[in-house]
Amino acid sequence: MARLFDPLQLGALELPNRIVMAPLTRARAGRDAVPTAIMAGYYAQRASAGLIISEATGISREGLGWPNAPGLWNDAQVESWKGVTAAVHEAGGRIVAQLWHMGRLVHPDLGGGQPLSSSATLAPDYAHTYEGKKPYVKAREATYEDIRRILGDYARAARHAIDAGFDGVQIHGANGYLVDQFLRDGVNFRDDLYGGSINARLRFMTEVIEAAAAEIGMDRVGIRFSPNILVQGVEDSDPPVLYAAVARRLEELRVPWIELREAHRPTLAGAIPTAPVSPEMREHYSGKIVLNSDYDGPSARARLAEGIADAISIGRPFISNPDLVRRICKGAPLSAGDPATFYSGGAEGYIDYPPLEEAEAA
Ligand SMILES: Cc1cc2nc3c(=O)[nH]c(=O)nc-3n(C[C@H](O)[C@H](O)[C@H](O)COP(=O)(O)O)c2cc1C
């Protein structure tokens, strides 16, 4: 039975423990999507995680619709990321880049034109822009030419991630972004190579994984999903069947690890989760499974003991507890974070959460 402080191999990555830092968008990059110096300090503070998954990082200008999120499409971004990855490595950590194309969730103010998706659909709610929230713009259906270009962007971003010193990449296949917009049938109405049957819906994800692996090797590629919950207007009519097929495909591709944002309670947006699919995926997939959502030390230990998960990823508690791993190890209390500064820009609420001793002395 695996324990939280046992080491773990995820493809080429050797983790000293099984507490993974989940990807967290913090919006501290420049408008040019170039990482800033405080990002190095922030990630280094959290280097005791078995693995850090970076905040979602744009593969192209057209695919990035979050103000002040970072990118990996040009040399300036690569150069700045080098400072971040070096700081993490110096502090003894490991970090992979989460590769992101937001598809229909990119507002033209940021992406530069009409967004695209698997099908011509309109996302619910509001887009993030530099002038605040604005209604989404209806996406157009991606052509085969678009898809070829985007696969090239994924390949370039994967290569750039390694050039920038990342230990690997995680494809963002969760939360209603582009890969998810192809996978789940709530928004993919195509009837061609990329939609119609489950097999066709898996094609884009498969090609993205292959494009990244061709650049950096499959042993440095992972992927994340949010299978059992409606996110940003994207859900599936039959998650167990779809994600069993996903698991079989990942097994064929020999993808070494996956992360599931597997909700157990309603989200803030009010979506009710359906049954977890990790048991089905485990049956068809022999790689490592990282489970996420609402874990703390005790619940992470209990979950590992059930035998489906190989590691647990933790998001929000890592924001306010840079030394989360140590606190879990000692059974120490966790500090609460301030949601007002989750995406607010500067150093406040970012690199000023104290580690345990300082917190106790204060
Ligand atoms: C501030 C914030 C930013 C997030 N950014 C990302 C992201 O960039 N990529 C992603 O896949 N999920 C993102 N998520 C989702 C988290 O990774 C995680 O799935 C969610 O917070 C539930 O896990 P937790 O209960 O451990 O926080 C974000 C969540 C929060 C609260």
How would you portray this structure in words?
It is a single chain. This protein is of the alpha/beta class and 362 residues long. Helices cover 34% and strands 16% of the residues. The strands form 4 sheets. An 8-stranded parallel barrel has the order 3-4-5-10-11-12-13-14, surrounded by 4 helices. The chain has a two-stranded antiparallel sheet with strand order 1-2. Strand 13, helix 9 (297-305) and strand 14 form a beta-alpha-beta unit. Helix 7 packs parallel to helix 8 (278-284). The model has no long low-confidence stretch (mean pLDDT 97). It binds flavin mononucleotide.
Task: Outline the fold blueprint.
Layout: E1 8-10, E2 13-15, E3 19-21, H1 37-45, E4 51-58, H2 75-90, E5 95-100, H3 108-111, E6 116-117, E7 126-129, E8 132-135, E9 140-141, H4 144-163, E10 168-172, H5 178-183, H6 198-216, E11 221-225, H7 239-253, E12 257-261, H8 278-284, E13 288-292, H9 297-305, E14 311-314, H10 316-320, H11 324-330, H12 356-361
Parallel strand pairs: 3-4, 3-14, 4-5, 5-10, 6-9, 10-11, 11-12, 12-13, 13-14
Antiparallel strand pairs: 1-2, 7-8
Bound molecules: flavin mononucleotide.
The site of flavin mononucleotide (FMN) has 20 residues, from strand 4.
Strand content: 15-25%
Percentage of residues assigned to helices: 25-40%
Q: Helix tally?
A: 12
Shape: globular
Unreliable spans: none
